[in-house]
Specification:
Strand content: 15-25%
Shape: globular
Radius of gyration: 18 Å
Number of helices: 12
Strand order of the largest sheet: 2-1-3-10-4
CATH class of the domain at 7-93 and 191-243 and 290-299: Alpha Beta
Structural class: alpha/beta
Helix content: 40-55%
Number of strands: 10
Largest sheet: 5 strands, mixed
Length: 302
């Protein structure tokens, strides 16, 4: 039996979350007293502008975005925001460099465009690093801001860019349209793909709702990682990510894999944080980054 709905919560994400969907259909959200409204966001600046304005209560986003908007005034909005990470959620769910249908190798990207959310963001840095590992250096291709991962997946399959970083099922959908998956983020080391983030709030009800929601996501992730929700995950991936059954099964395998899957304890490990900071230092160095390794722990809040 569900509790009477006590808290309405609005979440903004780039790609629909299978974990959220499973939590909803299992009744766990309802039992936690959460009435969840899901919103698709077009880009990370739009997502964090919505957090700042109170248009959404929580965001599922890259941890690099939280770092940038909390600590660096050079972020796309041009101002620091009081944002924090409530829980680490996953390790990218297949996050990889993908190529458009007519591109046969990373070397063929030379002189062409690479699609990113915004040029100075975490997934963009992943793209630059994976391309560089394959011998293609910044300046040998153009960079085009195309917005969220689903938007970039569409652009790639339509050959409006030669390469981009995709994950969370978007890479599988693009592959079905002739794109190729060529280099995973795991080549760079341990990586955290998405976190649950929020702005600071004095509203006790909102803070309680966010705490409950984080708990629901981690409990659901634990059930999935223990193998107890395979049918629900596959069904959800087919329904909300528009995957075929075989693609949904492949997504499920990514969800379970320790190097690419869910983080059921919600902890952002130090090695993954170090990879995140190193990528930003390499592709957008600033003196503000020098003290971040010590200050980064302050970004976590319950």
């Amino acid at each position: 039996m569900c509790l009477m709905v006590e808290i309405q919560l609005r979440v903004g994400a780039f790609t629909p979350s299978v974990v959220v969907d499973v939590a909803r259909h299992s009744g766990r959200l309802c039992r936690a007293g959460i009435d969840l409204q899901e919103t698709s966001v077009a880009s990370s600046p739009a997502q964090f502008r919505s957090l700042e304005r109170g248009e959404i209560d929580v965001a599922i986003t890259s941890p690099d975005n939280v770092l940038a908007y909390r600590f660096l005034s050079s972020n796309p909005l041009g101002r620091k925001l009081s944002v924090a990470i409530l829980a680490a959620l996953d390790r990218g769910l297949g996050l990889s460099i993908c190529l458009s249908p007519e591109i046969t190798s990373i070397d063929d990207v030379r002189g062409k465009s690479v699609g990113v959310d915004v040029p100075d963001s975490g997934f963009a840095f992943v793209a630059y690093a994976l391309l560089e590992r394959a011998g293609l250096h910044p300046g040998e291709y153009s960079v085009e801001a195309l917005g969220s991962t689903p938007l970039r997946a569409s652009a790639l399959s339509e050959s409006r860019c030669a390469a981009t970083v995709l994950g969370a099922g978007n890479e599988l959908r693009a592959q079905a349209k002739g794109c190729s998956i060529v280099a995973p983020v795991t080549d760079l080391g341990p990586y955290i793909g998405s976190v649950l983030a929020a702005s600071e709030s004095s509203d006790h009800t909102i803070r309680d709702g966010r705490r409950r929601f984080a708990g629901v996501l981690l409990e659901t992730a634990q059930e999935i990682m223990e193998g107890g929700r395979e049918a629900e995950v596959v069904e959800s991936a087919m329904a909300i990510l528009n995957l075929t059954e075989s693609e949904a099964q492949a997504h499920y395998r990514r969800v379970l894999a320790p190097s690419t899957g869910l983080i059921p304890d919600g902890v952002a490990d130090r090695e993954s944080i170090a990879v995140l900071l190193e990528l930003r230092r390499r592709y957008l160095p600033t003196p503000q980054l020098d003290r971040l390794e010590d200050e980064y722990s302050s970004i976590f809040s319950w």
